[in-house]
C-alpha cells in the first residue's frame, strides 16, 4: 500500500478566510502614471493583497514630493516603495543621489517599507540611522538574474545583507532547475531575521508558492498575468484561489504534478479545491521538472507527499521508484507516485484503474448488478483498439480482471507483442470489422482516431458495433466521439473518456491521502474547467 494516510491532526479546524499564514502577499504596481497606480492599488486590495509595492522606476514624469505624498498617503494598503535602478534589473537610469533621496522621502512620508539594493545599502542605512519611524522597515535586496548559487554562497550573501543593517533580507536568484528552490527554502528556514527568498523564472514558481511553508516574510503576486515585475511571478489571484496561499503553513504537506510542460494542467485546481473542501492541510502545485531523478533526490523530505506524473516523465520516473504496483510495472508507465512514511517512493498507474472501473460500472449498469467483488469483465471478450500507452493500460487491466483480450492495431506487430504479453489474440483493425465470434463483446478504443480536429473519423464502422454491449472511448476531446454516438445508436452502453480521466484522479487522491475523493466536487470542477 503506497498511500500516506492523513490523521485527524492534519485536518484544519477552520478554513474560513482568516489568514493563518504570517507570510504577506505583496502586489507590485507597475503603472506608468500615478492615476494608473491608484487603480492598481484598489484592485490589489480587492483581490486580497496585504501590501502594494510602488515601483517608482515604472512611473514616467515622476515628481518625487508631489507623487509620493499622494501615492503613499492615499494607498489603501501598506506601501513598499522600490525605485529599482537599471543596474539591478529595474528601469531607473538617472542620478543615484536623487534616487536615494526619493527613497528617504518615501520613508518620511509614511511608507511602511522601502527596498534598497545591497550594493548601496550600507551607506543608505547609515544615512537614515536614528531617523527611522516606528514600524518602518528597510528591505535590503540582492538579485541574481543568471543562476542560483550554492547554499554556502547564498549563506554568505545573507550575512553580507544582514551586515548592512537590513531589517528584512531579500534574495532573488534565477532557477535553471526546479531543485534550485531547495537552497532558497533552506536559507529561509534558517535565517535569523525576516527573509524574502524568491527564485525567479518558471522553474522557480514553487519558491514563490511555498513561501509560507518556509517562513518567507512575503511573496509577490501580480495583479494580472501579463503585468509581472519579475520572471515567473504568479498572479495574486492564483496564489489565493488556485494554490490556497493563505492555508499553507510550515506543516502543510506538498503534492504536485511533474511534467514538462506542466503549466496547463488542471490538476492543481482539482486537488487544491478538494483539499480545501475537507480542510486537509495539503497543497498541490505545478512542478516543472527537467530531470526526474534530481527532483526526487532533492525533494526527498516526507513533507513532499507525492506527485502525479505526466508527459514526458511517465517512463523515466519508473527508474526512480523503490516499488511499483505490478500492473503499472507491466504497462511500463506510471502516473501516480506516493512518498511513503518510510521514505520509499511507490508508484501506480491510475489510468488503467480509471478506465477499467468505468467500464465495470457500465457493465454493472447493463446487467442491473450492484457493485460486488466479482468483476463483470471476467469472462468477457474485450477488444482493445490500439497498442500504445493507453492500449497497454486497457489490455493489462482487462486481463487482470479475467477478460479474454483481443488487441487490434494499425501496426500489427505492436498488436501481436501486446497480445502475447496479456495472453490474448492480435489482429489488424480491418479484421476487427468482421470479428464477431459472439454477441455482447466490450470495445475499448485507445487510438487517436476521432480526436479533435478529425472528429468525423471513427476507428470502427457502425455496422460492426452491433456485436458489442459496451463501447468505451479513451478520447475526451470531443467527449461525444463519432464512435460513441454510433455505438449508442446501435444500442450499446457507452462510457466516455472523461470518465477515465475523472476516475484516475479519484484514485490518485485516494493514494495520496488515504481518503476517498470528493467525487461530486471533482466532477463539478471538471465540468466547469475542462
Ligand atoms: P497513447 O499513449 O495515447 O496510447 P500512442 O502510444 O502514441 O498514444 O499510441 C497511439 C495508438 O493509436 C497506436 O496504437 C497507433 O497505432 P500504431 O501503433 O500503428 O501507430 C494508433 N493510431 C494513431 N493514429 C492512428 C490512425 N490514423 N489509424 C489507426 N490507428 C492509429
Describe the structure using short key phrases.
single chain; 530 residues; alpha/beta; eight-stranded parallel β-sheet; 18 helices; 20 strands; elongated; disordered N terminus; binds 2'-monophosphoadenosine-5'-diphosphate
Give the structural class: alpha/beta
Query: Can you give the mean pLDDT?
Result: 93
Work out the strand percent.
Answer: 15-25%
* Rg calculated over all Cα atoms: 28 Å
Number of beta-strand segments: 20
Helix content: 25-40%
Tell me which ligands are bound: 2'-monophosphoadenosine-5'-diphosphate
Distance between the termini: 31 Å
The 3D shape can be described as elongated
Strand order across the largest sheet:
7-6-5-4-3-2-1-8
Number of helices: 18
Q: Could you give a short account of the major beta sheet?
A: 8 strands, parallel
Uncertain regions spanning at least 5 consecutive residues = 1-5, 7-21
Amino acid at each position: 500500500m503506497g498511500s500516506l494516510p492523513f490523521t485527524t491532526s492534519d485536518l484544519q479546524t477552520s478554513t474560513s478566510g482568516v489568514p493563518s499564514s504570517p507570510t504577506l502577499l505583496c502586489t507590485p504596481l507597475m503603472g506608468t502614471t500615478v492615476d494608473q497606480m491608484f487603480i492598481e492599488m484598489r484592485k490589489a486590495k480587492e483581490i486580497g493583497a496585504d501590501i502594494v509595492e510602488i515601483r517608482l522606476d515604472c512611473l514616467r514624469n515622476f515628481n518625487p514630493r508631489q507623487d509620493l505624498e499622494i501615492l503613499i498617503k492615499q494607498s489603501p494598503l501598506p506601501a513598499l516603495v522600490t525605485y529599482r535602478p537599471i543596474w539591478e534589473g529595474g528601469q531607473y537610469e538617472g542620478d543615484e543621489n536623487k534616487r536615494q533621496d526619493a527613497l528617504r522621502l518615501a520613508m518620511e512620508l509614511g511608507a511602511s517599507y522601502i527596498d534598497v539594493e545591497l550594493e548601496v545599502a550600507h551607506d543608505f542605512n547609515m544615512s537614515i540611522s536614528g531617523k527611522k519611524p516606528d514600524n518602518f522597515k528597510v528591505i535590503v535586496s540582492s538579485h541574481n538574474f543568471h543562476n542560483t548559487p550554492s547554499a554556502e554562497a547564498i549563506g554568505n550573501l545573507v550575512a553580507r545583507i544582514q551586515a548592512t543593517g537590513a531589517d528584512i533580507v531579500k534574495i532573488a536568484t534565477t532557477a535553471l532547475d526546479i531543485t534550485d528552490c531547495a537552497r532558497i527554502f533552506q536559507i529561509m528556514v534558517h535565517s535569523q531575521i525576516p527573509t524574502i527568498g524568491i527564485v525567479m523564472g518558471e522553474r522557480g514558481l514553487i519558491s514563490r508558492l511555498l513561501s509560507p511553508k518556509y517562513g518567507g516574510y512575503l511573496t509577490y503576486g501580480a495583479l494580472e498575468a501579463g503585468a509581472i515585475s519579475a520572471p515567473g511571478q504568479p498572479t495574486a489571484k492564483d496564489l489565493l484561489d488556485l494554490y490556497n496561499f493563505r492555508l499553507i503553513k510550515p506543516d502543510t504537506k506538498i503534492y504536485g504534478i511533474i511534467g514538462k510542460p506542466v503549466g496547463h494542467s488542471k490538476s492543481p485546481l482539482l486537488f487544491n479545491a478538494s483539499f480545501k473542501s475537507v480542510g486537509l492541510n495539503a497543497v498541490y502545485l505545478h512542478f516543472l521538472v527537467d530531470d526526474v531523478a534530481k527532483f526526487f533526490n532533492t525533494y526527498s523530505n516526507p513533507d513532499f507527499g507525492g506527485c502525479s506524473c505526466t508527459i514526458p516523465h511517465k517512463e523515466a520516473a519508473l527508474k526512480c521508484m523503490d516499488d511499483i504496483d505490478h500492473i503499472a510495472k507491466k504497462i511500463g508507465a506510471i502516473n501516480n507516485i506516493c512518498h511513503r512514511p518510510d521514505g520509499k517512493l511507490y508508484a501506480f498507474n491510475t489510468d488503467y484503474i480509471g478506465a477499467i472501473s468505468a467500464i465495470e460500472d457500465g457493465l454493472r449498469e447493463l446487467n442491473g448488478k450492484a457493485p460486488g467483488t466479482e468483476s463483470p469483465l471476467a469472462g468477457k471478450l474485450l477488444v482493445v483498439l490500439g497498442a500504445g500507452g493507453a492500449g497497454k493500460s486497457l489490455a493489462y487491466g482487462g486481463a487482470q480482471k479475467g477478460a479474454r483480450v483481443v488487441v487490434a492495431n494499425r501496426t500489427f506487430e505492436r498488436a501481436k507483442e501486446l497480445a502475447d504479453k496479456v495472453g490474448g489474440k492480435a489482429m489488424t483493425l480491418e479484421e476487427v470489422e468482421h470479428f464477431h465470434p459472439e454477441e455482447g463483446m466490450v470495445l475499448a478504443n485507445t487510438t487517436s482516431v476521432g480526436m479533435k480536429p478529425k472528429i468525423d473519423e471513427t476507428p470502427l464502422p457502425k455496422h460492426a458495433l452491433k456485436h458489442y454491449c459496451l463501447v468505451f472511448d479513451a478520447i475526451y476531446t470531443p467527449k461525444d466521439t463519432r464512435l460513441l454516438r454510433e455505438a449508442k445508436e446501435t444500442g450499446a452502453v457507452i462510457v466516455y473518456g472523461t470518465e477515465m480521466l475523472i476516475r484516475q484522479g479519484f484514485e490518485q487522491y485516494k493514494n495520496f491521502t488515504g481518503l476517498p475523493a470528493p467525487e461530486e466536487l471533482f466532477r463539478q470542477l471538471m465540468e466547469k474547467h475542462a
